Amino acid sequence: MAEFIGALDQGTTSTRFMVFDHAGSVVAVDQREHRQIFPEAGWVEHDPMEIWSLTTSVIEGCLTAAGLKRNDLVSVGITNQRETTVVWDVKTGLPVANAIVWQDTRTSDICDGLVSDGGIDRFRPKTGLPIATYFSGPKVRWLLDHHGLGDRAERGELLFGTMDTWLAWNLTGGSHVTDTTNASRSLLMDLVTGTWDADLAMTLGVPTAMLPTIVDSIGPIGICTGPLDGVPLSAMLGDQHAAMVGQVCFEPGEAKNTYGTGNFMLMNTGTSPVVSDAGLITTVAYTRSGEDPVYALEGSVAVSGSLVQWLRDNLGLIGSASEIEALASSVADNGDVYFVPAFSGLFAPHWRSDARGTIVGLTRFTNKGHIARSALEATAYQTSDVLDAMTTDSGVRLTELRVDGGMTVNSLLMQFQADLLGADVVKPRIAETTALGAAYAAGLSVGFWKSTDELRQLWVEDRRWSPTMDDDTRLTLLGRWHAAVEKSFGWV
Ligand code: ADP
Question: Most exposed of 135, 160, 274, 362 (fewest Cβ within 10 Å)?
Fold first, then answer.
């Protein structure tokens, strides 16, 4: 008898398939990294065929490790890195080019053109988003322009999708669908109606013929073929939205912060979208068939964990990500060094595409421990700025922050985060909240879990960090950080 739920988590650096049981515990996991392709400065690509191939192997690897068959899965959910854009041929199913990843800044000319004709916030009332290279709509336009494919797209010969769409298409044998959370990251979707907006599509130069059908995040969506033949695909949602579900942020005012490649704080704002005055974006938290949409405010930070990877891969300062904690702990403090990792400009709350990475405060005293420490601290400072914006927009001051993601294993960082926020930082027992959220969503859809209240019972605290820093120190550090951020502006 089927008694498990599958979650396919297609992230920025890797793809994993996980199986969960009814208690929300991990039964098995298989995970594979894919290549990061950097053809030019500011460009980041992934190979969609590589990702699809890894998807099939992690599904098979996970089921084999667990000793399970496909029909042991009641249903499956997909969660994905958001905004990363694929365009493929409807007949052959082959991508026309590599996927353009969310961090990629090649669309800055397209975005600048849109901004010069009405300002950075011209689409915000309808989409909840500022104009930025981050979002998928301008990436589609770039692919069509660059490869001369506009006419083919108009004729319906090419399809657009984010990774959810690409994987659903391949897993179901040809359903062209995306969910409301992923669609809400395109600059093409009307946040209130949850439908594509023809005027926006025209302005961005994206033919509506190539857009997928928008479905609810918590399905039903379709039936899989291939490696999951016969298993219902019951949920699709962007990784940060899935993490919200995994952290059971179902009530207005509940928030989580995920520390992965980038950092993403989302706060549930209930069934009406709150338009931000403080530099956050408004996004769909999730939608469920037959219910009102649930919205969120989001503070997105482009570079956090990827800065640790950069220290490892580009500078060779550490041999593995986990070594950064010891190196950063080799010094008593940051030695007045601040690292603003504006590699893709700065996202929330600044939205400055003209900013670039900056290290300030270097002296002969500075050593690699200070650089490592300033790199780690950058994640906490950026999170503090986002939380301030969240408080301004929502009027809710969080008393504690639920956290997850790869960087939360770093205790030095988590303690510094609690110090800087003046609030507790708490981590759940299941740190894989993104995959868990996709599983929860898929399970809710088919009645495997009966209600969000039932899921709430499954959230168990693992670790808590409480602030110990005095206010003077905190304010001094934040003041120095803000001065450093100013220095990163206007480089491009
Ligand atoms: P994603 O889902 O975005 O691919 P993960 O949640 O798997 O990311 O987190 C991976 C990130 O965490 C990487 O960018 C890596 O550099 C960072 N990371 C891993 N271990 C540590 C550590 N001990 N200290 C700081 N950062 C770490």
Answer: 362
Decide whether any atom of ligand 1 lies within 6 Å of the 161 Cβ: no
CA-nearest of 217, 371, 218, 191 to 298 is: 191
- 407, 416, 434, best to mutate for ligand 1 pocket (most atoms within 8 Å of CB): 407
Q: 30 - beta bridge partners? A: 17
Contacts of 383 (CB under 8 A, 6+ apart): 257, 263, 265, 299, 301, 417, 420, 421
Question: Of 259, 204, 217, 200, which is closest to residue 412 (Cα–Cα)?
Answer: 259
User: Is the Cβ atom of 13 under 6 angstroms away from ligand 1?
Assistant: yes
Give the C-alpha distances (Å, rounded to integers) separating 434 from 13, 26, 209, 240, 320: 14, 12, 31, 7, 23
For residues 343 and 356, give the distance between their C-alpha atoms in angstroms, rounded to a whole number.
5
Q: Which atom of ligand 1 is nearest to the CA of 322?
A: 23
Query: The whole model's pTM is what?
Result: 0.90
Ligand 1 pocket member 11 (CB < 6 A): yes
Helices (H), 319-451: 324-329, 368-394, 411-421, 433-446
Residue 9 phi, psi dihedral angles, 5° rounding:
-115, 100
